[in-house]
Amino acid sequence: MLNNKRGPYGEYPQVQAEKARKRTLSDQFEAKLAKSMASQERKISRRVPKKVEEPRVAKKL
């Protein structure tokens, strides 16, 4: 007599693999988003507003 060991499991391993795949992709997306946000903040902090010099006017003697 042969035992069919695949019977009780059904699609369980496939469902678990799909959930793990979605979780991995979402974690990667969140990490990429956090990295890009940190990069934008660094770029903004580097952009220090430059002083606006007043136009030079020749003094009358």
Number of strands: 0
**Which structural class do the helices and strands define?**
mainly alpha
Low-confidence runs of at least 5 consecutive residues: none
Q: What is the gyration radius calculated from CA atoms?
A: 31 Å
Distance between the termini: 117 Å
Mean pLDDT: 82
- Please state the overall shape, judged from the principal axes of the Cα atoms: rod-shaped
Q: Tell me roughly what share of residues is in helical segments.
A: 55-70%
Main pleated sheet: none
Q: Strand-residue fraction?
A: under 5%
> How many H/I helices?
1
Query: Secondary-structure element order, as H and E?
Result: H
Protein described:
This protein is mostly helical and 61 residues long. It has a domain at 12-46. It contains one helix and no strands. Residues 50-61 have a biased composition (Basic and acidic residues). Residues 1-21, 36-61 are annotated as: Disordered.
